[in-house]
Write a structure and sequence with these properties.
Blueprint (H helix, E strand, L loop, with lengths): L8 H7 L37 H13 L4 E5 L2 H9 L7 E5 L4 H10 L6 E5 L4 H10 L3 E5 L11 H8 L5 E5 L17 E5 L13 E5 L2 H13 L6 H11 L2 H22 L4 E3 L9 H7 L6 E5 L3 H11 L4 E2 L9 E3 L11 H7 L5 E5 L5 H14 L3
Parallel strand pairs: 2-3, 2-4, 4-5, 5-6, 10-11
Antiparallel strand pairs: 1-7, 6-7, 8-9, 9-12, 11-12
This protein binds pyridoxal-5'-phosphate (PLP).
Length: 385
């Protein structure tokens, strides 16, 4: 029994950010489909690019569950990343994990580097790379944990210990873990960023992004980016994401249980190949995963060493794991990173970090796990793997 005043995640995700219903009796706040507001209204709204009741509600809920003082919502995960990167000046430097989402890589490489920002990529699972922070004093350290798609687990607390007394801000893309499983701000990060499109919404029917922080400097910068760069979401998408968020806790439990069972199945069937899942004992950073994640989340990556053609055939044979970009929805999806999510990364760079043609990623949904395993097993049989 918890007698503390602070409500738990499950309660906050349902009850926090439930405003703008006054006097109507509505249990759920409506969608404020308006581009503009009457001047001098009681709530301070003026134009939806710089604020809307549906943004405010979602921001309040997410700030609670991410243990943040400020949460700012954006049109997509990439918009949230753009908002953070846009704060950099000419001459700024980013020290980034070498395995990051392909579009983050592309945004840094093809857009922000044009404006005089530089980047160095390192393997943050290697302790020497953590020391690199004090050697180069970057403006930002950029990590994901687990990473997309290799599921490397990065020790957030160790990196935060290295950045905490410096001018360097630690940004953690928390998309693969979700707010329910991991809390980067509690581990010392300056910013926790999420693509809300994935586990937060959870139903593959809306796009969104958020930047969470306890730092007023970053909170102000993000509010500025939302309106000045035109990165705001739509009120309807915020409303959908808020609805999805109410069931995040139970979804994440089911995603994680299903993914764990499937990872074990794949590992048993292919004991000599690579199956990555943070909560498998064979995972190279299993101990770190146990330390900072509540459970393993719903993504599995595997490299069965069967080459491009067979890997793509395998994904095409699957009945329930539809081949599609994205992840984190209630339905299972499969993905071939080299030709899909990470195609923007040059082949040599991609392969040097382990994104081979044989690598595939499963976003395990909340279907019945036996049905998913039968689906995988018959697809593997069909391609003779
Ligand atoms: C780790 C990670 N961060 C950010 C994004 C971008 O999110 P969005 O598609 O909402 O722009 C993605 C998308 O797959 C992702 O995997």
């Amino acid at each position: 029994m918890n007698n503390k005043k602070e409500p738990h995640f499950e309660t906050d995700s349902i009850h926090a950010g439930n405003e703008f219903r006054e006097g109507t009796g509505a249990i759920i706040p409506p969608i404020y489909a308006t581009s503009t507001f009457e001047s001098d209204n009681d709530y301070g709204f003026d134009y939806t690019r710089s604020g809307n009741p549906n943004f405010t509600n979602l921001e309040k809920t997410i700030a609670k569950i991410e243990k943040a003082d400020y949460a700012t919502v954006f049109a997509s995960g990439v918009s949230a990343i753009t908002a953070v990167l846009s704060t950099l000046d000419k001459g700024s430097m980013i020290l980034a994990e070498e395995n990051i989402y392909g579009c983050t890589y592309r945004l840094i490489d093809q857009v922000f580097c044009k404006f005089g920002v530089s980047v160095e990529y390192v393997d943050f699972t290697n302790e020497k790379s953590i020391k690199r922070i004090s050697e180069v004093s970057p403006d930002l350290v950029w990590i994901e944990s687990p990473t997309n798609p290799l599921l490397k687990v990065i020790d957030i607390e160790s990196i935060a210990n290295e950045t905490k007394d410096s001018e360097t801000a630690l940004v953690v893309d928390n998309t693969f873990s979700s707010s329910y499983i991991q809390c980067p701000l509690e581990l010392g990060a300056d910013i926790s960023l999420l693509s809300l499109t994935k586990y937060t919404n959870g139903h593959s029917d809306a796009l969104g992004g958020v930047v969470c922080t306890r730092d007023t400097y970053w909170g102000d910068k993000m509010m500025f980016s939302q309106k000045a760069l035109g990165l705001q979401p739509s009120p309807f998408d915020c409303w959908l994401i808020q609805r999805g968020l109410k069931t995040q806790s139970i979804r994440m439990e089911k995603h994680s249980n299903n993914a764990y069972e499937i990872a074990k199945y794949l590992e048993e069937r292919f004991p000599n190949e690579k199956v990555f899942y943070p909560f498998l004992e064979s995972h190279p950073q299993y101990e770190i995963a146990l330390k900072q994640m509540k459970m393993g989340s719903g993504i599995i990556t595997a490299d069965l060493g069967i080459g491009l053609e067979k890997t793509v055939s395998l994904l095409n044979e699957l009945q329930y794991f539809t081949k599609a970009e994205s992840l984190g929805g209630i339905e299972s999806l499969s993905c071939h990173p080299a030709s899909m999510t990470h195609a923007a990364i040059p082949r040599n760079v991609r392969e040097s970090v382990g994104i081979t043609d044989s690598l595939f990623r499963l976003s395990v949904g909340i279907e019945n796990v036996d049905d998913l395993i039968i689906d995988l097993s018959s697809a593997l049989d069909k391609i003779g793997a």
